């Protein structure tokens, strides 16, 4: 992965780490507007913990620009969609959470676009 792409993905992963951590803290402290305690099919706090763990791995491995780092960054982006995906536009609390939703969606787009671009470039260079 090129250095500029790697830096972009790292920054986007860091954005999602911060937003996910804030969301978990809001949930635990019940600070309004906090996420629900459960969303089908799981409790949200353990899911957010797993998401943060995946994000931490993505951040650590992303420094090397390896395929596994890109894969973890893409997986982290997918987990963030549960909390910040397009379904949030119809959430009753959207008027209070939109800054986090829009910021997270921007970070998710950066991770997906640069991550897929990097994987395609690696495939091409392997040939």
TrEMBL record:
Q: Where are the transmembrane segments?
A: 12-33, 39-61, 68-85, 97-120
Q: List UniProt keywords, sorted A-Z.
A: Membrane, Transmembrane, Transmembrane helix
**UniProt-recorded name of the protein:** SPW repeat-containing protein
Organism classification, top ranks?
Bacteria, Pseudomonadati, Pseudomonadota, Alphaproteobacteria, Hyphomicrobiales
């Amino acid at each position: 992965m090129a250095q500029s792409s790697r830096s972009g993905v790292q920054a986007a992963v860091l954005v999602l780490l911060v937003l996910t951590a804030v969301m978990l803290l809001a949930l635990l402290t019940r600070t309004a507007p906090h996420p629900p305690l459960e969303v089908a099919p799981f409790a949200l706090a353990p899911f957010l913990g797993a998401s943060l763990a995946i994000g931490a791995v993505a951040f650590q491995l992303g420094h090397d620009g390896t395929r596994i780092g890109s894969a973890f960054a893409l997986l982290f982006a997918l987990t963030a969609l549960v909390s910040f995906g397009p379904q949030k536009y119809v959430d009753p609390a959207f008027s209070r959470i939109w800054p986090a939703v829009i910021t997270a969606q921007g970070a998710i787009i950066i991770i997906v676009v640069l991550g897929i671009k990097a994987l395609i470039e690696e495939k091409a260079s392997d040939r």
